[in-house]
Automatic annotation (TrEMBL):
Residues 391-410 are annotated as: Disordered. Residues 1-193 form the Major facilitator superfamily (MFS) profile domain. The keyword Membrane applies. It is found in: Cell membrane. This is Major facilitator superfamily (MFS) profile domain-containing protein. SUPFAM superfamilies: MFS general substrate transporter. InterPro entries: MFS, MFS_dom, MFS_trans_sf. The chain crosses the membrane at residues 33-56, 77-96, 102-126, 138-162, 168-189, 210-235, 247-268, 280-297, 303-325, 337-357, 363-384. It holds the Pfam family MFS_1. The lineage of its organism: Bacteria, Bacillati, Actinomycetota, Actinomycetes, Kitasatosporales. It is a multi-pass membrane protein. Keywords: Membrane, Transmembrane, Transmembrane helix. It comes from Streptomyces nanshensis.
Length: 410
């Protein structure tokens, strides 16, 4: 069985488990910060601002941390980042006593900037840990499919801790999980030995410029995927208010995440025919089609079931996007490229959240926004398919043997 072989490979279970644990703060920290702020006497607006600043700082710093990993290795970036991030989250509850809102803002922003780049780092490790392309394909699907679960488990864990103890305890546990998970990854032999492959491709000098037309258009297109996710989250909140069922705000995104997880498991069990570009475009078209039932303004139960369909194709889109990034990025800069991919989706998600918030009182417009984001992605991908396809790779000397690991462990 493919997943059994993946998880049975050396270090894979540790890397996956450590990355998921270390990334739980991505789903926990924004909620814990919001709860701490409101419990400390601040308004929900101020707490929301703190939470947004943390997420924005974390996203914006991804490419910088990715480039640092490409230059200095993973452990040299992961461990200091995790230590600083955890220390600042633990210190945040004391900011009201010693420094007030100014200090709290600084701690939140710097804490977000220091969040360890585990997602990009794990994607860079797969070629050296799993040389078999089929196992690597399954690992990427498994890794991508489980991401949504972080945003279900994380907020629930914070709510439980804040209810049983207080928000400061939730921040402390968030910090501890981030540090333990990051340490499990950063101290593993594959992460400690990892260095980017700076060898020449087929005897030609590697391309040093990252912002080529293919890479740029790919990342621009992925903002539409993030836009759809952000708009869906706000639409679920508006559904909860319209039907006076508060749980819908959590149940609808949870159904979307479960669909993503199941879709990833199905996708990763076999090797698919066709080029990566073709699979990316087909999966994006299916992702777009999955949003159309929302235009009929379904009721709560139908809406919850409906969002599982686009969720099932989300993992395929993201997995193919990572494969396309690997093929297009220059040697020695793949981790930075992965980080830009993450930032592109995050930026789109912020834009979708903002616009959906302004249109929340208009049911049809709000329901149509996820499809609009997916349509944008598909349109850009279709226009850019020549840059993304095999001919575009050949022009830049980017062909590689499918079983050749991009990153070598000396």
């Amino acid at each position: 069985m493919t997943y059994g072989a993946v998880l049975g490979s050396p270090y894979v279970a540790r890397l996956l488990g450590g990355t998921l644990t270390g990334r739980l703060p991505n789903g926990m920290a924004p909620v814990a910060i919001l709860l701490w702020a409101t419990a400390s006497g601040s308004s929900i607006a101020v707490g929301g601002l703190f939470s947004a600043l943390y997420g924005l700082a974390s996203a914006l710093a991804q490419p910088v941390k990715g480039r640092l990993m490409d230059r200095h290795g993973q452990s040299a970036v992961h461990l200091p980042a995790a230590l600083l991030n955890s220390a600042l989250l633990v210190a945040l509850p004391f900011s009201g006593t010693y420094g007030g809102p100014g200090l709290a803002t600084a701690l939140v922003v710097v804490g977000g900037l220091a969040a360890p780049p585990l997602e990009a780092g794990l994607r860079a490790l797969w070629p050296s840990v799993l040389p078999d392309p089929r196992l690597r394909h399954a690992a990427l699907a498994l890794d991508t499919g489980t991401q949504g679960l972080l945003y279900i488990v994380g907020p629930l864990l914070v709510a439980a801790l804040a209810s049983a103890y207080n928000p400061a305890a939730a921040l402390a546990v968030t910090a501890a999980l981030g540090l333990v998970g990051t340490a499990a990854v950063a101290l593993s032999p594959p992460s400690r030995r990892w260095r980017p492959d700076r060898s020449k491709d087929r005897g030609t000098a590697p391309v040093r410029r990252l912002a080529t037309p293919g890479v740029t258009l790919l990342f621009v297109s992925l903002t539409g995927i993030g836009f759809a996710i952000g708009a869906m989250n706000v639409w679920s909140v508006s559904m909860a208010g319209r039907y006076e069922q508060d749980m819908l705000a959590g149940i609808i995104p949870a159904a979307f995440s479960v669909g993503s997880f199941v879709g990833g498991l199905i996708y990763g069990r076999r090797t698919w025919s066709g080029t990566t570009t073709r699979r990316l475009i087909v999966a994006t078209a299916a992702f777009l089609g999955g949003w159309f039932p929302l235009l009929a303004l379904p009721g709560p139960y139908a809406a919850t079931a409906a969002v599982a369909l686009p969720g099932a194709f989300l993992t395929i889109v993201v997995a193919c996007a990572y494969l396309a990034t690997d093929a297009l990025a220059p040697s020695g800069r793949t981790t930075e490229a992965y980080a830009w991919l993450i930032l592109s989706i995050g930026a789109g998600q912020a834009a979708g959240t903002a616009l959906a918030g302004r249109l929340a009182e208009h049911p049809l417009a709000s329901a149509a926004l996820p499809a609009a984001g997916a349509a944008f992605t598909l349109t850009v991908l279709l226009a850019a398919r020549r840059c993304l396809g095999p001919s575009g790779h050949a022009q830049r000397g980017r062909h590689r043997r499918p079983d050749a690991g991009r990153h070598k462990a000396p």
